[in-house]
Amino acid sequence: MGDRPVCVVILSCKSSGSSVLQNLLCKYAGAKHVMHTRHAQHETLYWTKAASILGRVQCRIPGSEVPIPPRKALHETYNLLTANLPHFVPPADSRELIFEGWRRLCHHFGPIFVEKSPHHLHQWAALELLLEAVRLLPEVEFRFIGLARNPMDVLYSLWVRFRTDPVSFQHHWQSAYENLLRLEQHVAGQLLTLRYEQLAAHGDGARRVLEFLGQPPVPDAEQFVHGHSLQRWRKDPWFGFRLHPRIEQLAVSFGYGPDDLSNQSYPLWGLYRVGSQLDKCALSNRWHVLRRRLRNRQFAT
Questions:
Q1: What is the 8-class DSSP label of residue 244?
Q2: Nearest C-alpha neighbor of 18 from the set 84, 111, 114
Q3: Domains of the chain (ranges, CATH numbers)
Q4: What are the C-alpha distances in Å from 5 to residues 113, 199, 262?
């Protein structure tokens, strides 16, 4: 792909397979991610933190600490850069710190540096800053991979793992993928959009990703992602959630058919949904979110 380092930014909603795609890129394309970050799965939340630092407006997502207070975001960005870049001297100017820091990360972890933080697709402010990076860092070749997954699978996964309410979170899914369609208008030649289902169950997704990055095909890559997590919600007799027609219509535009999205209506779903918000999993998740927000208030004052 030339002498410039390649920065691959995976853009997806939560529970859409971005960790699997990141691992695939590291295994078969020789990509690297940051080594030191306080977040799981090598995520940095770099551009949502940058949006906080620069005072950009962001929306609050259920189960997330984002938006992070500006002072805390600056502190964590400083720590991320100094932990991952030997001998890096952070500039005093916050804006210069953000863009010079990213440039240095791309060079240090090149030739292919991969970043995946599902928070970014939910925040247009973060995507705007990424577009600024494309313009301000011509020595870096940016590639974006928009990863969609059947929203019923996404919402069921979040429901089972964290008891995130699918009725409300479906609208956050909608906002995220409307942002992806909006981003495509700005980076059409640099964006590959694919479905998680094309990666799983021996689909052609791995070949398309490697081809997009100018890498030779690897037969084993097509077997890397299994399809065990697909449509588990159909086997759950208590999960009676049904998508709002507008969200279903958006999903269809990403290649999902009505049969992929339709669910049976269970009479007791409403009671089960309300009762589940009080179970141990839901209460524990809410406590962790509340504790993070209380800690964040220390940086906001």
A1: -
A2: 114
A3: 6-300 (3.40.50.300)
A4: 7, 25, 43
